[in-house]
Amino acid sequence: MKLFIVLVAGMPGAGKSIVSKAARDLGLPVYNMGDVIRMETSRLYGIITPETMRETSRRVRKLYGEDYVARKTIEQIKEKRGVIVVDGVRSLVEVEVFKKYAETVILAVHASPKTRFERIRKRNRPGDPDNWEDFVKRDLTELQFGLGNVIALADYMIVNEGSIEEAYRGAYNILKKLVEKNAKDNSDS
Ligand SMILES: Nc1ncnc2c1ncn2[C@@H]1O[C@H](COP(=O)(O)OP(=O)(O)OP(=O)(O)O)[C@@H](O)[C@H]1O
User: Fold this and answer.
1) Domains of the chain, first to last
2) Would you call 116 helix, strand, or coil by DSSP?
3) pLDDT digits (tens, 9 = 90+) for 30-39
4) Which ipTM was obtained for this model?
5) What is the spatial distance between Cα 90 and Cα 7, in angstroms, rounded to a whole number?
6) CB of 177 shorter than 6 A to ligand 1
7) Is the CB of 16 under 6 A from ligand 1?
8) What is the distance in angstroms between the CA of the first residue and the CA of the last residue of the chain?
9) What is the DSSP string of 40-94?
10) Residue nearest atom 2 in ligand 1 by C-alpha distance
11) How many whole angstroms separate alpha carbon 176 and alpha carbon 14?
């Protein structure tokens, strides 16, 4: 069985965690690229806050290259087989790193800024922006990493403007089809 990577991309609060939930329910391993930053943040700052996370994010890219987070994620997954999900890809440079190791597709989750802002406010995650200006600032930081390009080149798109159940069903069906396709491709070859 070959490795097949589903790269999940979306702006903050778009609903990427719904895709992770659907993946876990299908028994697929999920890797979060944010975990690499979380580990580096503890190493560099000894404390994890949204500010130290953001600073680490910028710092490691500058020090070790735009592809660093993807390379670190690859170290964890390259021995894996079958369909896996990687949450949080942010640039085409990162996409290229994954493409070298396996067949990949990009699954994007989209919701309008207004919807994302309302949902972020409700989820009450520490460090989330609580006003429109900070929300826009965070969006721009993500876009500077190149996230907009990844979303523009997505193979699949979930528009998450309806209910959570609807988005979950969309994600579940896409992932299930990919699992079936990968199984078929492997039995053919
Ligand atoms: N369709 C929906 N209806 C209502 N609430 C939703 C919907 N989709 C997501 N949410 C809620 O909106 C919030 C943001 O979603 P989620 O945390 O999945 O976003 P994310 O893309 O993982 O964000 P980040 O990149 O910031 O981690 C969560 O509290 C989630 O439960």
Assistant:
1) 3-32+82-184 (3.40.50.300)
2) helix
3) 999 988 999 9
4) 0.93
5) 10
6) no
7) yes
8) 10
9) HHHHHHSS--HHHHHHHHHHHHHHH-TTHHHHHHHHHHTT--EEEEEE----HHH
10) 164
11) 21
